[in-house]
Predict the 3D structure of the following.
Amino acid sequence: MKSHTNKENKYDYDLVVIGGGPAGMTAAIYAQRANLKTVIIEKYAAGGKIIKTSEIENYPGYDYILGRELSEKMKKQVEKLQVGFISDEVTKIRDSKDHKVKKVILASDEFYTAKGVIIATGTLERKIGAVGEEEYANRGVSYCAVCDGALFKNKIITVVGGGYAACEEALYLTRFTNKVNLIHRRDQFRADDKTVNKVKNNKNINLITDHVVLQVLGTADKKKIGKLEIQNVKTKKNTEIATDALFPYIGSDPVTKFVKDLDICDSNGYIIVNDKCQTKIPGLYAAGDVIAKNLRQIVTAVNDGAIAAQYLINFIDNLNE
Ligand code: NAP
């Protein structure tokens, strides 16, 4: 990677987009099409959370599409426009006093300068916090059904959670086995009725409501997960259930540690933006799951990405005047 340490006042890019999920890719498409020299910086793979999403049925234009397929289509569109792509982690953003130069600093201490920045880093899966959860990660505990579901063909699979992700991934996992447990800490679900009814009517899903997972227990040789200790939250009675896999889907937290010092987040760590997807710092915008909002969907992420890019294009146009 080239070093930029002597280029303090020069722009490497018009726009740096941090995060390569649907929001970031959409922002890059709009910006590059408006002739802004744009780069996406992404720590993991392009696609964000949708590459970990099995099936999508609520994205207009596709009544059914695999998450990785939709992400691949978006990525191809970005590549066709020749948007730059850097695989790295952003650790800090610095703004000049006049807000005309943003410095995006990477883990390596190298940096890129830009006229504007869009943060689209999304969220990261939450851990249950059960004893043994970390110990058995990659030995039966996984946070990605699409990636690892097929490893547990005809085995017992347990999903935890009561939102869309838990319901949808439990349904997806019935492709591999007829023994899927779905543990939820209440008896009311957050997903819509259609999804919840699909779960309830699926004879391969064993619903265990009003329970939480206390402990992940291994097989006798402790090489992989074998059982879970669970607790009934009403009776406080503990029981053990056999399982070969555990997929926690209990929500996620925003990836915003790198902007903590900018004071642009709410108390839960989500970035506060106005209806233009603009933070309180001129030239710094945010889009997608990482912003404080009520509805986190692919369609709302791409909506935010377009809005952020469009208003940032206006901001940059004004800088040049
Ligand atoms: P979510 O909607 O926040 O649901 C998390 C679930 O996990 C809740 O049911 C919660 O229980 C449970 N939970 C939280 N902490 C727990 C703990 N420590 N132990 C046990 N259970 C715990 O998360 P999500 O399903 O990952 O969805 C995240 C966002 O993406 C949401 O905005 C969702 O709408 C969206 N999404 C949408 C789709 C779709 O539309 N097709 C698909 C996936 C995700 P309580 O209910 O008791 O709080």
Notes: Residues 58, 128, 160-166, 168, 185-186, 190, 212, 249-252, 296-297 surround NAP (CB under 6 Å).
